Amino acid sequence: MGLKSALSKPFAAWVNRQVLRWKNNPILAQDKVFRALLAKAKSTAFGQDHGFETIHNYSDFKKKIPIRDYEQLRPYIDRVVAGESNVLWPGKPLYFAKTSGTTSGVKYIPISKESMPEHIKAARNSLLGYIHETGDTSFVNGKMIFLQGSPVLEKKSGIDTGRLSGIVAHHVPAYLQKNRLPSYHTNCIDDWETKVDAIVTETIHQDLRLISGIPPWVQMYFDKLTQVSGGKKVKDIFKNFSLFVYGGVNFEPYRAKLEEAIGKKVASIETYAASEGFIAYQDSQTDKGLLLLADAGIFFEFIPVSEYFNENPTRLSLADVTLDTNYALILNTSAGLWGYSIGDTVKFISKYPFKIVVTGRIKHFISAFGEHVIAEEVEAALLEVAAKQAVQITEFTVAPQVIPPEGGLPYHEWFIEFVQPPKELAAFAAALDKAMQQKNGYYHDLIAGKILQPLHIRLVQKNGFIEYMRTQGKLGGQNKVPRLANDRALADDLNNYLKN
Description:
Helix content is 37%, strand content 22%. The chain contains 18 helices and 20 strands. The termini are far apart. The model has no long low-confidence stretch (mean pLDDT 92).
């Protein structure tokens, strides 16, 4: 056992005791965060505009602070980006995390000197929690790879700006630097495919034990490894590979193909990190829920998805949430985001401890006919049928076809890239439609009432989604394919990548 491995167990036990203090008292932890945020920001422009001095409780807060998305908060953010101090948070941000927005173009999310350590602490604690629960420290002694964006930062009004994963690369603890791959030079390669090729060359002969990244791009890395190694499984290339850390998308649609590429099952940790803050992580190998980080500088609010677009939707603090309800997630952060709608939807699967699963995106749904189908439902239906028929999925997305070019009733159109298509595609489609009707009663009623015809499947060619993402300039990094949309923009583009 190496020195790092020996020291990691007592360190993990110490961190676990710290986590338990707020994990066992999450409402108290949230109240402390709430009051600390208000006290810190009361003299900012935003705090003065919204009367922070007169806010004494959550009820007052809801009256003073409206819910805003990025575009609605943009007048304040633009002032920060222009270099003004004390706008949303005291002083100036430490960084701007640059993200791509569908309606706002490039978004600049402030990261403060108070919020940056929370990102690092949560990432660290997710690994230490795994060590404490399992006793497995083997990955600490080998190499670790983090498939991430370039750490090269640009300046925006004198503030370092880049992708979150690139920013985080500058904060990897010194004791992990010698274990960390790829090299800084390779990480700086901008073109994703060139970068993956370089990473394969750099890592293929290393003792890689932990791999971290967004599943579809990890799969791309695995495919390249297999190709370069002459068809070897990942387990035969990296004999001590034992831990996969992922986030950004639901892992389940990718699990079968990734495990086949690896050649064995490996332990995994799911994380829920965004530019706006590190929200949750999987703290147990025995359940799939993500522990909501009640003590990480974020005061959380929740709006029932069914009310999100109402003029005055219900806003709940953590104390008042219920299980198995889809909520829009609202953040108030130590970087100065207030009443901020991040766009994600979550559902609580337990209370005390408060654990969530991410169910989709507010704007990623299909309700062209009033069915309001969400990502959780399409993913669950597809996985269920694929498992029963022993079919593996590479990638997929769903869109409404309101005016079918071939005539007839409208339908939901599924674009699926299979590892190997089902032997009977029509039977697969019928089973998938049945599963969707079971998941969504409104969809069932529309099928039964002859408003919709059963779904259609379009076979996407091998690497079709990768080719599409390349044309959009969204290959690699933190980019991912939307599971579903209420319009045809993505679907119409995918028609260029169908099998003959």
